[in-house]
User: What shape does this take?
Amino acid sequence: MFPPLTPEDTLRLHDRAMGASSCGITIADVRLPDMPLIYVNDAFEAITGYSVGETMGRNCRFLQREDREQAGIARVRTALRTGEDCTVVLRNYRKDGAPFYNELYISPIRDADGLLTHFIGIQTDVTRRIRAETALEHERAELETALRELRDTQTMLVHSEKMNALGQMVAGVAHEINNPMSFVNSNLHSLRTSVADFFAAYNKLETLLGAQGVPIGEAARAIRKEADLDFLRDDIEDAIHDSLTGLSRVKHIVHALRTFSRLDEADAKESDLRENIDSTLALMRAELRDRVEVVIDFEDMQPIYCRPAELNQVFLNIILNAVQAIEGKGRLTIRARDRGDQVVIQFIDTGKGMTPDVISQVFNPFFTTKPVGQGTGLGLSIAYKIITNRHGGSITVDSTPGQGSTFTITLPKDAKL
Assistant: This one.
């Protein structure tokens, strides 16, 4: 049997155990002013570079130097004040000035009467761990950014393919309509001339026959009355007039289709924004019908350098959203102002408006408030990218539920496209 350890031997054993630890161990005396350190082990010296003589009698805050605004320090102060355990990670500084991350655990020591007398601190250098975590977080952020950019690129590619297909379809439709419309228009003009010549000849004949004798003149007048030639002349003229008016409207639609698709023009060029808006509204005639009144409030302004086909897609998406937001009858005001080196276009509707939560997400890809199957959630997201990324402009929205929404587009006049 070994003899029991004396109190001195026990203290010596504890001291050797703390000295052999790879963690820095400190003891601070709460009873003395400024809570000075009264013990540090060898590992503390190895971690910090400060010798025992440079450390004893000082408050451990010297390890933070002037870097005192760390969140963990407030937690340490609270634990010291309340006499509780605490674990934090602090950014400390070695004697040579090199920063390191210290995982500090402090625990209170009380005497037999329960009075707080000391705090023991255990310090672990976790610099490598923190740096690895920081690098991992940085890589994660980069991967998230790359994924977001990949999704944005995918969205734009899908949009580009759809717009290309739509543009080709629109241009093809315009071409197919334009060809027969041309000869129908020509034939109607020829028919109008022929009918006029026919009735002029008949009138001459009737006049000539009337001069030859009453019976023949009466016969001619009887034929006119029986065939109701006066009605036919007016009816044919009305039919030709209505047909030519309809053809004029078709011609206007074809022009709007060609302006909207702009496949025969350069990708970036000077373009008249009013013409772009008008062509888009012409294509939206069926959606607008007699339900939505459109008010155009454009200042006189010079054409700007832009990508017209892409802006037409933006205008189409915003107008379509405005029309769908208006329940029953309402108004859409399209206002444009010249602001020196910029142009500001506003689309102001009297629809149902949006809540702040919807506004915060309205330009996010795939976000939609429409029922499943009635919207992809890409329209305004694509509009945002066309305005910001492709034109160096900005697009914002202000809205009040129950009062309507205002989309504001700002475009530079000389964008570097």
Q: What stands out?
A: The radius of gyration is 43 Å.
